[in-house]
Amino acid sequence: MDTREKLDAFQKRIDNDEKIEPKDWMPDRYRKQLIRMMSQHAHSEIVGMLPEGNWITRAPSLERKLVLLAKVQDEAGHGLYLYSSTETLGARRQELVEDYIYGTAKYSSIFNYPTLTYADICVIGWLVDGAAIVNQTMLAKSSYGPYARANIRICREESFHKKQGYEMLAKMAAGTPEQRRMAQDAVNRWWWPTLMMFGPPDDESPNSAELIRWKVKTKTNDELRQSYVDQMVMEAEAIGIKLPDPELKYNNNTGHWDFGEIPWDEFWNVIKGNGPMNRERIKARRKAYEEGAWVREAAMEYARKKQLREEKAS
Amino acid sequence: MSKSNSKPISHYQNEWPLWEVFYQPGNGKPFEHAGSVHAPDAEMALQNARDTYARRNEGIAIWVVPTDQITATTPEDSEAFFDPAGNKPYRHPQFYSTPRAVKKRK
């Protein structure tokens, strides 16, 4: 039972910036919110391999193939760090995975957009991973110890993702007219969806206040979005890329860049499952899960027989 | 779980067991907890641990331990459990004084 005294004592620990560890007492709702949020984060990393995996065989050189392979493998690793920390809350891995492949669990809407050209791979590194870093740097200070530690690990690797993307895009933006067109076209398509990655505006984000009170998050969606915009305006300018927002303007009073209205209708539509790639993504994940079932089973059986043999021999 | 159409029957007994992963970050360093992996046996647990937690040489050695084999203190008991160490200041060097002359010579 979540009694008033227990809840107050818990809040006091949070207010003192203590970390909450798996076996510590926590409100039922804190646990539920964490499982929801952390497993969504894990699913996003896993599904995030698909748009990039799409270009591994067609990356323009051996070096680019190696880099992309390493990056996609990292995304798998990030998913696993996060599933591992979600399991510390008593959730089962298989249940989490199946709730997303066959159930209603969500993942980041950004991965429901297609990667049409190789420039999209550059832009995913720069913008998508850039946005992810802003979010995960905040989550590295989360009140739940295992989640904070998973995010620290992720952030370390994510900066490689972002830098390789930014460097490739800079090269493309300084290349032939056709390459420049490709680079700009990809930025035009990805800019607004990356702004949506931070979630709905604060006044329409029902979970925010609670998550901030518990220091699961330490900044609001709009605060994170603003710091992302401020950073990206500078980085775009440095490589001669134009961000597709005519209303972007430096605000002398706030010290921040003002930006135009985000197409939220599109965001809600993609969340509902109507994005360009929603069906394709879930189909690919189901296929991998179901076609891998016999491998998981065979490995388990092999381990069982090996153990039997060892027991007999001794 | 809800609205499944082609969902296979889920058997948790088929879920690979969970292992805790510890790694040694460098020569002479103590082992640290990294996280956990699922694997059918110890050998694959080591391989999975390497692929998950040591893609950039984060560790020079890895331990894997079946999660259910770890015995740990509980937060409810920890106060009483660690209490005996709480009132023994004489176990610390700060408890003792040194003549001023000796201090100066450092």
Can you walk me through this structure?
Chain A is mainly α. Helix content of chain A is 68%, strand content 2%. The radius of gyration of chain A is 21 Å and the shape is globular. The N and C termini of chain A lie far apart (50 Å). Chain B has a single domain, classed as Ubiquitin-like (UB roll) (Roll), CATH 3.10.20. In chain B, 24% of the residues lie in helices and 19% in strands. A three-stranded antiparallel beta sheet of chain B has the order 2-1-3. The radius of gyration of chain B is 24 Å and the shape is elongated. Classes of the chains: A mainly alpha (314), B alpha+beta (106).
List the helices and strands and how they pair.
The complex is a heterodimer of chains A (314) and B (106).
Chain A: H1 4-15, H2 28-47, H3 49-53, H4 62-87, H5 93-101, H6 118-139, H7 145-173, H8 177-196, H9 208-213, H10 221-238, E1 249-251, E2 256-258, H11 264-274, H12 278-291, H13 293-313
Antiparallel strand pairs in A: 1-2
Chain B: E1 18-24, E2 32-38, H1 42-53, E3 61-66, H2 75-82, H3 100-104
Antiparallel strand pairs in B: 1-2, 1-3
Q: Can you give the helix content of chain A as a percent range?
A: 55-70%
Please state the average pLDDT score of chain B.
86
Order of helices and strands of chain A: HHHHHHHHHHEEHHH
- The oligomeric state is heterodimer
Q: List low-pLDDT spans of chain A.
A: none
Q: Please state the average pLDDT score of chain A.
A: 96
